[in-house]
């Protein structure tokens, strides 16, 4: 029987000339459940004795009932939708169950539930396993059913119109069509497996395929795809392998291409490396063959759904109350702040938290390779780099954007990450009235951060004496905050270092806070304290300008009565 397609227009009927040759013959129709039941119930009752429930397995009974109803519908010419067929089947089973009530039947309830869920897809496995919907056997059944259903589904669906529908509506409509195709092809899946197949097909069509379930998991912070059969995630700072897989390398590349094309970029053999972002702001890096030897690699740094504040970081143990107070004062006092740390150490999270201290009356310009900052201020201009086009031209780098930002009358400039020649332009911006600017870079200690900054200035091609570069760094950068992901998975601020000035050819610094490791507790979590140096900050005069000097001295453990 040809499945009745939804009337929403999402799945338009094919022209008559294209319809399958197995279309049912036209007959007088019973178009309601009640009418169909009146015609079919006597036929079923005559052929299926309730007493046989005791003698047959669930699979045999389900096959018998489905076969009888399908044959009866064809003989009577009834034309019912799949939902109406399910209602009819459930009603018939209830009638049979009532007749067998005096004869205890251990499978009656299971059968009624099974038929109420809809036609099953039989892939040659035992029914008890099929009803579980879980495990390797279930995964195999879904994969086998996909091979049958997906080509037929794509013949019926208008993908461009499907992409415009809300996902929950699309999943429901595809689920209906999956059930109808299953009934037409005499395939058999239980209800849970049908829903899983419909969701997977929807994700493959308009979503990110197997990655969707990981993107919806709030406990996952990073997703790492190493070819089609290895997908790892980070939870609570620890890496673990998942059971999520792709079909093959082509499947991974399809999802990677869908990610990058949404923001006007591409990934192929000529451009095998690309940075991108998801619609929610999650950062994505893709590297494809021939550079990735074992298959395409996708790395996703998930966008935090809730905004992290400095107070929340203190509550979670990422910092202390006193340390977070000093960070608030530093941001309010318009210090130029450099956030240093390794990959995945929480640099961007800390930058987002500190940016909440920016006054809402200020104009902020953010510059990133792939936009991921979550500034809450109303006056924010977000800029993003652009890779070269197919001809190799049209590239817009961080340095281009920094230079242009200086013409946009910014109060503050925030760089997502300094990694090259733009370091010189950023230092010049910090030294020419754009106080309160912030940026991140990769380094293991505050001193290494200064050295890296000096090396990146040299990458600009401008020849300057080393002392001139260091003097410019000492004048521009006020504070370096070092963050680290420690071995227990917790991200902590391990050191806060203030740039004091120059002594000869050396940039002088002083530590304001440092995390002191004491040991670990029974759960394996590191135990330590954020220890203040007790020194009076060099930026005390700037804090005084904003009437924050007493709060600053209190947080540092210094007496407000001491003279400067």
Give the overall shape, derived from the CA principal axes: elongated
Which blocks of ≥5 consecutive residues have pLDDT under 50? 1-29, 104-134
User: How many discrete structural domains?
Assistant: 3
How much of the residues is beta strand, in percent?
Answer: 15-25%
Q: Which class best fits the helix and strand makeup?
A: alpha/beta
- Side by side, the strands of the main sheet go 9-8-10-11-7-12-13-14-15
* Rounded Rg: 32 Å
- Please report the total strand number as a whole number: 15
What is the top-level CATH class of the largest domain? Alpha Beta
Average per-residue pLDDT, rounded, comes to 78
CATH superfamily of the largest domain: P-loop containing nucleotide triphosphate hydrolases
The biggest beta sheet is recorded as: 9 strands, mixed
Provide an overview of this structure.
- The protein has 564 residues and is an alpha/beta fold.
- The protein has 3 domains: 31-118; 213-301, Beta-Lactamase; 310-556, P-loop containing nucleotide triphosphate hydrolases (Rossmann fold, 3-Layer(aba) Sandwich).
- 41% of the residues lie in helices and 17% in strands.
- It has 20 helices and 15 strands.
- It has helices spanning 33-47, 58-76, 82-99, 108-117, 127-132, 135-156, 159-162, 167-185, 191-206, 212-215, 249-261, 310-316, 321-332, 347-355, 398-405, 422-430, 446-458, 466-476, 540-545, 549-556, and strands spanning 220-226, 231-235, 238-241, 273-277, 283-287, 297-301, 337-341, 364-368, 380-384, 412-415, 438-442, 479-485, 491-503, 506-520, 526-532.
- It has a 9-stranded mixed sheet with strand order 9-8-10-11-7-12-13-14-15, sandwiched between helices. A 6-stranded antiparallel sheet has the order 3-2-1-6-5-4, with helices on one face.
- Helix 8 (167-185) crosses helix 9 (191-206).
């Amino acid at each position: 029987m040809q499945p009745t397609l939804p009337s929403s227009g999402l799945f338009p009927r094919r022209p008559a000339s294209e319809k399958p040759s197995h279309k049912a013959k036209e007959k007088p129709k019973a178009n309601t459940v009640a009418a169909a039941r009146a015609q079919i119930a006597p036929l079923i009752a005559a052929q299926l004795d309730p007493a046989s429930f005791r003698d047959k397995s669930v699979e045999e009974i389900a096959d018998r009932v489905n076969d009888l109803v399908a044959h009866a519908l064809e003989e009577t010419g009834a034309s019912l939708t799949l939902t109406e067929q399910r209602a009819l089947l459930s009603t018939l089973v209830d009638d049979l169950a009532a007749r067998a009530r005096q004869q205890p039947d251990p499978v009656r309830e299971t059968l009624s539930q099974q038929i109420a869920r809809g036609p099953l897809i039989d892939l040659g496995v035992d029914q008890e396993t099929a009803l579980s919907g879980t495990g390797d056997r279930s995964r195999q059944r879904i994969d086998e059913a996909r091979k049958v259903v997906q080509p037929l589904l794509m013949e019926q669906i208008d993908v461009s119109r499907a992409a415009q529908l809300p996902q929950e509506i699309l999943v429901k409509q595809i689920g209906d069509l999956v059930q109808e195709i299953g009934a037409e092809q005499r395939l058999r899946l239980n209800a849970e497996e049908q829903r899983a197949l419909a969701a997977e097909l929807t994700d493959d069509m308009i979503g990110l395929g197997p990655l969707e379930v990981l993107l919806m998991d709030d406990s996952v912070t990073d997703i790492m795809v190493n070819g089609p059969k290895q997908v790892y995630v980070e939870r609570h700072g620890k890496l673990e392998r998942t059971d999520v897989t792709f079909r093959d390398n082509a499947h991974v590349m399809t999802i990677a291409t869908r990610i990058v094309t949404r923001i006007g970029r591409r990934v192929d053999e000529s451009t095998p490396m690309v940075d991108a972002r998801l619609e929610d702001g999650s950062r994505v890096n893709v590297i494809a063959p021939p550079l990735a030897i074992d298959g395409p690699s996708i790395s996703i740094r998930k966008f935090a759904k809730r905004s992290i504040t400095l107070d929340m970081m203190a509550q979670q143990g990422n910092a202390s109350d006193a340390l977070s107070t000093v960070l608030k004062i530093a941001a309010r006092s318009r210090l130029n702040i450099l956030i240093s740390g390794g990959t995945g150490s929480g640099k961007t999270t800390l930058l987002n938290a500190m940016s909440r201290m920016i006054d809402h009356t200020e104009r902020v310009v953010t510059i990133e390779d792939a936009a991921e900052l979550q500034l809450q201020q109303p006056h924010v201009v977000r800029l993003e780099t652009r890779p070269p086009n197919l001809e190799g031209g049209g590239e817009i780098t961080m340095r281009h954007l920094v230079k242009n930002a200086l013409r946009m009358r910014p109060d503050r400039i925030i760089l997502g990450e300094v990694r090259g020649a733009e370091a010189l332009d950023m230092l010049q911006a910090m030294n020419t009235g754009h106080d309160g600017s912030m940026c991140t870079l990769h380094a293991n200690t505050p001193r290494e951060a200064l050295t890296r900054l000096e090396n990146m200035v040299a990458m600009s091609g401008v020849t300057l004496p080393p002392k001139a570069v260091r003097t410019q760094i000492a004048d521009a950068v006020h504070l370096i905050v070092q963050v680290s992901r420690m071995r227990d998975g917790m991200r902590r601020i391990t050191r806060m270092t203030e740039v004091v000035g120059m002594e000869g050819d050396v940039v002088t610094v002083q530590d304001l806070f440092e995390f002191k490791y004491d040991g670990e507790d029974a759960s394996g979590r590191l135990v330590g304290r954020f220890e203040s140096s007790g020194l009076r900050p060099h930026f005390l005069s700037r804090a005084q300008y904003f009437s924050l000097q007493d709060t600053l001295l209190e947080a540092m453990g210094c007496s407000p009565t001491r003279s400067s």
